[in-house]
């Protein structure tokens, strides 16, 4: 336990205590906009179909343009890209609120929704990239890099618990418009603060000539496998949302759906932050297989769950498998992608997750109508099985695929997991933050 705390202290020493807080508050609008836009449009238009169209357009915008923003961040740096995206997103979100309240027609409202999704400033993927860059610049060992992924994954999970909860509270006490207006304010303020934070200097971008235009290296197979695994994880999210909603409606307690889903997120966040305590012998390949195997085993009881309290228990326990898979998937992406294109790789991975969730919500909603909650839950179980299959058949590199500009400890000869480099255990002495990194970020 002491070693784990020390590892996270070293992470905070790299980023400063303000950056994780700012990045968390800047992530909340992403978690609020999808659910908030659906509730707002449904209430103002009286049509679930219109609400679904606008929500779908928002997701499509995020999926298509997320990787584009990531590429721009790689080339021009995070600061200008996040500043521009946060400003556009705040205006677009405010326009979505105004359009819904004035009963704008479906097509223009969906166009505004698409712009809102396309301008999401990608704080989660970019924060991972920035923190990893800080760790590598400070020559930190792999236990610190692993803790960075665990912390960022936990912040994502907590944001997706609190975001929908804030929307629900606003809708209950006043109107969903207040939730989306708050999201616009959050992204304008904290997106800007994140962009202007001094640590942005570590992700100042690489000109095309420095990135070797014309000699682009094809990502290794594990990158594509991880993207597929994240898309399937998104399918699990969407299928669970549809199944939980259908079952709570059948039981006559539709207001419990958001609470049940939030319980999953709370447990997922707790387990995610605990990953820093895992010993070195649990390498990324083993973590990927264990997490996907656990998702399959823990999701299977959903097929026979037909009452509220068993649903709470099954969904809560299932949350324990989600954060480890997400954290491991992004860690594999970071280890395998070219450092100069890491923002784009992280953004692409996040877009795969969103795409899987949005697709599953549409498909599983229809399945739940025709076959009941078990129809949606069957899709979640099937996606978990495919995730496990990918983890079992994919070859995971024994070391970082790209090391340019990155100082990485070599694999130890006593690595206990075949094909995996052993990392120093939490609590071992790390290289101190010195030089340029220490001068820039120490004490912030």
The helix count comes to 15
Secondary structure class reads: mainly alpha
CATH topology of the largest domain: Growth Hormone, Chain: A
Shape: globular
The overall pLDDT, averaged over residues, is 83
Distance between the termini: 25 Å
CATH class of the largest domain: Mainly Alpha
What does this structure look like?
- The chain has 15 helices and no strands.
- It is mostly helical and 444 residues long.
- It is globular and about 55 Å long.
Please name the defining characteristics of this protein.
single chain; mainly alpha; Growth Hormone, Chain: A; 74% helix
Per-chain topology:
Elements: H1 2-15, H2 18-45, H3 48-76, H4 78-101, H5 106-118, H6 123-137, H7 142-173, H8 176-196, H9 221-250, H10 257-274, H11 284-299, H12 308-336, H13 342-371, H14 373-393, H15 435-441
Helix pairs in contact: 1-7, 2-3, 2-4, 2-7, 2-8, 3-4, 3-5, 3-13, 4-5, 4-8, 6-7, 6-13, 7-8, 7-10, 7-12, 9-10, 9-12, 9-13, 9-14, 10-12, 11-12, 11-14, 12-13, 13-14
Task: Give a brief outline of the structure.
Helix 7 (142-173) packs antiparallel against helix 8 (176-196). This protein starts with a helix and ends with a helix. It has helices at residues 2-15, 18-45, 48-76, 78-101, 106-118, 123-137, 142-173, 176-196, 221-250, 257-274, 284-299, 308-336, 342-371, 373-393, 435-441.
């Amino acid at each position: 336990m002491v070693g784990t705390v020390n590892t996270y202290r070293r992470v905070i020493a790299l980023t400063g205590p303000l950056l994780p807080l700012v990045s968390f508050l800047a992530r909340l609008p992403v978690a609020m906009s999808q659910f908030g836009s659906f509730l707002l449009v449904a209430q103002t238009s009286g049509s679930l179909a219109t609400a679904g169209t606008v929500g779908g357009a928002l997701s499509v915008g995020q999926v298509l343009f997320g990787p584009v923003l990531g590429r721009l961040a790689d080339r021009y740096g995070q600061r200008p890209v996040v500043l521009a995206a946060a400003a556009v997103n705040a205006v677009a979100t405010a326009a979505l609120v105004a359009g819904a309240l004035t009963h704008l027609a479906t097509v223009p409202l969906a166009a505004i929704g698409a712009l809102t999704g396309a301008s999401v400033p990608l704080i989660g993927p970019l924060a991972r990239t920035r923190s990893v860059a800080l760790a590598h610049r400070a020559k930190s060992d792999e236990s610190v890099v692993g803790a960075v992924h665990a912390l960022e994954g936990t912040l994502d999970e907590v944001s997706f618990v609190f975001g929908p909860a804030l929307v629900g509270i606003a809708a209950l006490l006043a109107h969903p418009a207040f939730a989306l207006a708050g999201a616009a304010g959050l992204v304008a303020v904290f997106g800007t603060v994140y962009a202007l934070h001094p640590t942005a200097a570590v992700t100042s971008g690489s000109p095309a000539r420095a990135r070797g235009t014309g000699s682009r290296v094809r990502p290794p197979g594990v990158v594509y496998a991880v993207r597929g695994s994240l898309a399937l994880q998104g399918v699990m999210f969407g299928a669970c949302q549809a199944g939980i909603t259908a079952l709570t409606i059948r039981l006559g307690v539709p207001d419990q759906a958001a609470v049940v889903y939030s319980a999953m997120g709370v447990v997922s966040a707790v387990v995610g932050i605990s990953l820093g305590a895992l010993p070195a012998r649990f390498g990324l390949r083993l973590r990927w297989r264990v997490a996907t195997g656990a998702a399959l085993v823990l999701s299977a009881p959903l097929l026979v769950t037909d009452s509220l309290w068993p649903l709470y228990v099954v969904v809560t326990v299932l949350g324990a498998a989600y954060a480890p898979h997400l954290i491991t998937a992004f860690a594999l992406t970071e280890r395998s992608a070219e450092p100069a294109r890491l923002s784009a790789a992280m953004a692409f991975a996040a877009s795969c997750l969103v795409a899987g969730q949005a697709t599953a919500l549409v498909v599983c909603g229809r399945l739940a109508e025709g076959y009941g909650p078990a129809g949606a839950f069957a899709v979640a179980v099937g996606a978990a099985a495919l995730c496990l299959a990918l983890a079992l058949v994919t070859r995971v590199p024994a070391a970082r695929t790209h090391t340019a500009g990155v100082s990485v400890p070599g694999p130890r000869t006593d690595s206990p997991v075949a094909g995996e480099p052993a990392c120093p255990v939490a609590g071992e002495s790390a290289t101190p933050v010195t030089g340029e990194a220490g001068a820039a970020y120490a004490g912030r």
